[in-house]
Design brief:
By secondary structure, the chain is α+β, with helices and mostly antiparallel strands. Helices cover 30% and strands 22% of the residues. The longest helix is centred in the N-terminal third of the chain and has 26 residues. It is elongated and about 80 Å long. 36% of the residues are buried. The C terminus is likely disordered.
Length: 451
């Protein structure tokens, strides 16, 4: 393996030396890793990257100001601060609080340009850390994305996400060290199932999801004095608050919770009829007091005994018989009001019926449930997002190379989601390269403050 590694590096250096643009051995290794040490593929990607950088004057982008900073400072809360235990520079962003409408009111090319500026600034920080710490092989960074406030309105930015993912995959390969997602809400698995296809498989392996109760696990990778207080650290005032009138926070404003009162010794059933695979069922509920039993069941195939629009009485004998025929996806759990908001999701792999069942086992007491249930067609959502971009559904490196991460330094987001989601519907497709994404300069300079 070492001999193969060195031979690939030497061969790529020989091919690259024919070009005038200088590249370090570390640069060559990043492109080789991204292409599973296929020398010709790595050379093609590297040459395309250098051409893109020249055509868009990327080497000089940091001489200007951060694009759109004045316009977005009220809707985007972020900070560049500190380093993890490996020396990687850290970037934190309250991604779930982004106002999707404000973001989409901006020229998408300017947003891509802003992202390129961010990437170049991170490259500079990484190089400075490598020199200061005496770690010449340090070439990646760590990001923390706070997803609190994420809701289905953020589907509007999937087209932008696709373009940004394409830039990262083609022009900044192997730059992601670890990417943490914290405070993830119930809609996260739905949006992730759409987004994951747009990402390089190696990059996906470096994504880590931490629930509210797991924020202390960040300290396995990052010292407290390098972390904002919001994520278990000791540094205050790093993440600015955005204007409340421009924040898309809390539950989805387009989704309201319904109320259901369950009499003693009764149940409430929600039936979701799924026509085909490619749909995600999501549920979100809370109890006013005390506890209930909650379960999720699946009945494969079309149920001939139920009309499409037939209303079923939750406590009827017919429902009891149908539930006996269904297989449990999630075993019955006792949930209580002290748990706050409870959420989950399930990817539907075939035609069938999904049953959500709440049971009040109390002998005398009525109980109150507030809930929302949705069924989203993720293929339709993905097609709509990709139609807005005008480019292929997956980056060229995703289509051609799908290896697994071999450095062992991160958990797998897909493995995490498999606890919440059954099935894996969005495998990378065999797309081809669709040309480069230009960075169009702004017609008039933005008045922004520097980093």
């Amino acid at each position: 393996d070492l001999l193969r590694f060195l031979r690939a590096l030497v061969d790529l250096r020989a091919l690259h030396d024919e070009n005038e643009v200088h590249a370090t051995d570390l640069d060559l290794l990043r492109f080789l890793r991204a292409r599973s040490f296929d020398v010709n593929a790595a050379h093609t990607q590297l040459a395309a990257c250098q051409k893109w950088r020249q055509e868009n004057d990327v080497d000089n982008i940091l001489r200007g100001e951060y694009p759109l900073e004045d316009y977005l400072k009220h809707t985007l809360s972020y900070c560049y601060h500190g380093e993890d235990k490996s020396g990687r520079p850290i970037y934190c962003e309250r991604s779930g609080m982004v106002d999707a409408k404000t973001m989409m009111s901006v020229d998408v090319n300017e947003l891509v340009r802003r992202h390129v500026y961010h990437q170049e600034f991170q490259v500079r920080r990484t190089e400075e850390n490598a020199k200061r710490l005496g770690k010449p092989t340090l070439d990646s960074w760590t990001e923390i994305h706070d997803m609190n406030g994420l809701n289905l309105q953020h589907r509007q930015v999937l087209g932008l996400f696709q373009k940004v993912a394409r830039v990262d995959s083609d022009y900044y390969p192997e730059r992601a060290g670890r990417i943490f997602f914290v405070n993830v809400p119930f809609v996260f698995p739905i949006l992730w199932k759409i987004c994951r296809r747009m990402l390089d498989p190696v990059t996906r392996e470096k994504f880590v999801v931490l629930s509210n109760g797991q924020l202390n696990e960040l300290q396995q990778f990052i010292e407290p004095d390098q972390l904002p207080v919001e994520y278990g650290g000791t540094v205050e005032g790093l993440l600015p608050r955005v204007d409340s009138d421009k924040v898309t926070s809390g539950p989805d404003p387009n989704v309201s919770l319904e109320e259901r009162r369950l009499a003693a010794r009764s149940r409430f059933v929600r039936r979701l009829t799924c026509a085909s695979g490619g749909q995600v069922a999501a549920w979100y509920f809370r109890l006013e007091a005390n506890e209930m039993k909650f379960s999720v069941l699946w009945q494969e195939g079309k149920n001939e005994g139920i009309g499409e629009a037939e209303e079923l009485e939750s406590n009827s004998k017919k429902v009891s018989l149908l539930l006996k025929e269904a297989a449990p996806i999630q075993s019955a759990l006792r949930v209580n009001a002290t748990q706050g908001n409870i959420s989950g999701s399930h990817v539907v792999s075939d035609e069938g019926t999904l049953w959500l069942v709440w049971e009040n086992e109390a002998v005398f007491q009525q109980k109150v449930l507030h809930y929302n249930v949705s069924l989203v067609d993720i293929h339709a959502e993905e097609d709509e997002a990709l139609a807005e971009t005008g480019v292929n559904s997956v980056p060229s490196s995703v289509a051609q190379h799908g290896r697994t991460n071999d450095n062992g330094d991160a958990m797998n987001l897909d493995d995490y989601l498999s606890v919440e989601i059954s099935g894996d519907l969005l495998q990378p497709a065999g797309a081809t390269h669709a040309g480069q994404i230009p960075i169009t300069p702004s017609p008039s300079p933005q008045k922004t403050k520097k980093l």
